[in-house]
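Q: A reviewer asked whether we had any structural model of the full assembly, not just the individual parts. We don't, so I'm hoping you can provide one. Inputs are below.
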Amino acid sequence: MGLDRVLDRIDADVPKALERLFALIRIPSISTDSAYAKDVVACAAALKADVDSLGFQTTIHPTAGHPVVVAHRPKTGAPHVLFYGHYDVQPVDPEALWTEPPFAPSVKEIAPGRKVITGRGSADDKGQVMTFIEACRAFLATTGDLPVGVTLLIEGEEESGSPNLPAFVETHRKQLQADIGLVCDTGMWDADTPAITTSLRGLVYQEIVVRCADRDLHSGLYGGAAANPAHVLARIITSLHDRNGRVRIPGFYKGVTNPPAAQLANWKSLGLTEAEFLGPIGLKHSVGEKGRELIEHIQSRPTCDVNGIWGGYTGEGAKTVIAAEARAKISFRLVGQQDPKAIAKAFAAYVKRQVPKDCSVEVIPMKGSRAFEVDYNAPAIAAARTALRQEWGREAAAIGSGGSIPIVGDFKRILGLDCVMVGFGLEDDRVHSPNEKYDLKSFQKGTRSWARILDALARMKPAKEPAR
Amino acid sequence: MGLDRVLDRIDADVPKALERLFALIRIPSISTDSAYAKDVVACAAALKADVDSLGFQTTIHPTAGHPVVVAHRPKTGAPHVLFYGHYDVQPVDPEALWTEPPFAPSVKEIAPGRKVITGRGSADDKGQVMTFIEACRAFLATTGDLPVGVTLLIEGEEESGSPNLPAFVETHRKQLQADIGLVCDTGMWDADTPAITTSLRGLVYQEIVVRCADRDLHSGLYGGAAANPAHVLARIITSLHDRNGRVRIPGFYKGVTNPPAAQLANWKSLGLTEAEFLGPIGLKHSVGEKGRELIEHIQSRPTCDVNGIWGGYTGEGAKTVIAAEARAKISFRLVGQQDPKAIAKAFAAYVKRQVPKDCSVEVIPMKGSRAFEVDYNAPAIAAARTALRQEWGREAAAIGSGGSIPIVGDFKRILGLDCVMVGFGLEDDRVHSPNEKYDLKSFQKGTRSWARILDALARMKPAKEPAR
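A: Here is a predicted structure for the entire assembly that you could use as a starting point for your response.
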């Protein structure tokens, strides 16, 4: 069978595949620091050279920022996939904390039998991008062809917030047409369990400023009479949740639905316990809504968290001040059809109602984005689930992601494309931190996973279960 | 009558009295900055030279820090008073904000008919100290004697927290024996109403640290499940007051009593309104205990205020973090017989009971001092009230002070001495800030007030009302 030969080829080619990945990691393509602008360009060129050699038709597109690499390999009569990844990396400071140099990659055994690829970008996202390209390479080397048509879109500004990408996709919508989007910038459920990210929580992020007196006051003179904004702020924050952990803002849960039965069953099968999830961070009990499972708290239920709070004297020692103002940054993770604009408005109105006479509150909107959900029963997702189960010997977890991956929304909005988000990162990869690494197992079995997924997508049939 | 001649002499001598005060202000006796150590010594020497010339027996006592000036002028058969003040001053930075140079004093008309003495120390405390010395000078120039025996204790470390003063008083308790303490380091009720400070609120100051997870968390990953210390802290702060503005810590009000009827009547006669007290700081309504008058909120009721709060991300923009810990500085103003140790203990126990499972709270004690009250009906207070009424044409306000004046406690504890705290500072004197000033009226009528008080103390009789 063709696929078996492809998988064998992947295993045999690991040493050379590592060399190719190392060559990319050696280029310090830090997109946020203009001192590395030439390296970013060099990295795009290196990528182009590699995929050119695979028979892709590759173009480096300049943008107002860093270039986008687009490579085509169409296939008549087969589905066409659009693969997204990024070749830029995070800065490395503080560099002193790296035990291995960030741009001199190596394979290191960090525990008996556990080997990792070291270096900045090993996981985020050069290593992940190469799992897909190596899968293509193995198909081409073995069968002379790819099972599906492929377009690669590898950008160089993801770590800078992708400022030019939406406009680029808009301008190149015709060249980027495809049947399915594939994104490799997410993680596994755990080291043995693959995952498909089927939802991204939305976000409403606001700063509030409570003001009372028009200046800082001496608490010895005014204490007992003057309103204290820290007290008012505390009362507002306390009022955001009821005793059952539910958010009390009227209308907050509008658009929140329960996940489909199949997804709930998938989650249940994962058997996630509080000890497993919270134990590593020193906690034991989820504070989420009573009567819901932990997996719902972190996947399908909206949340509300104070991300920062400050006011008054915060230095050493004691200062008897009543501050003129106190501030908090408060954010909401959204799910389903929750409307960020409506929630921002309801939040502001709710907060203003909590403020006593003499005091005022200013609500400063900062960010707002809708949640995004992929249909768990969509044919491409079903194909990926099957492929991942075959590779890893267990059902893939269908998970939600807290971080935002804006390209998924752009692909949907501009290209009408649904995405399959599969990645092989692990929680301890330290992306964005010193000592980033990518497990060799993630790299090798990730490559094998993409080979299986491409094979499955070529033979994709509509799922029997109806879409929700 | 002798007193009238003394008062006339004071009025006539104002130009020369100003020159003497200016000479002191010109010496930058900043006690907190070792660069000015010689100036501090020079200021002590200048004071000694002046009071020596009045026939006091004066000694400059070195301490581990800056020297103390002690001057004696005993009088057989008369009461003896111990007068306290300080000759050191606050630093002047930011110097750029001074419209007049801080150490080149002048008289300046800041409003039609309102003249002020400019310069650092004009109010705090050189100007106030000189009101007393000038009163003595006028008695000596007019009658050749003082009506009472006088000891001056003028220290040079008040702005540094008087680190060496308690030990000095202890060591020199015999030389400092007196019948009454007089302190001139407080303020008027308003520009037309004198005040006697009869109570100092005590203080319990604590920092609390709420800890949940053992590290900062990404709210997109852990939000909805992980306990958030900012929420816990907000709940603790909210729980400190009930709906009626009362502190909810069990036992908090133990030792709090209502002021004596005469003091309440005195307060009532002041007719303080919320508009008067809170209007200048942009507020309208007192948040103190329901069913109590504003004057009680700021004078005789204990308080609880958050002085600082912080946790999580407080910089620009949005960061989706759940902090590992959140902190607050929380202080209580104490009155009557409230026990700072008992309250600190009750607070810690109360806070710990509010903390949910998985979280912890550390309570860090920072400061604790008892409230201090002078008997409103004590003979010396009654004498001062009479003298002030005669000078200002209205009843002196018997007020509490929020700031602490530790020497008052030291005099009581070490010397068994009750103090009369009278001062002529105004709220807009900007002590400790750029552009400190002292009203010329405060200086002149303050001097006259001390002359009347010394005269009254000489003829002091026990008050008819029994002590509480």
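A: Points you may want to mention in the reply: The two ends of chain B are 36 Å apart (CA to CA). Chain B has 14 helices and 18 strands.
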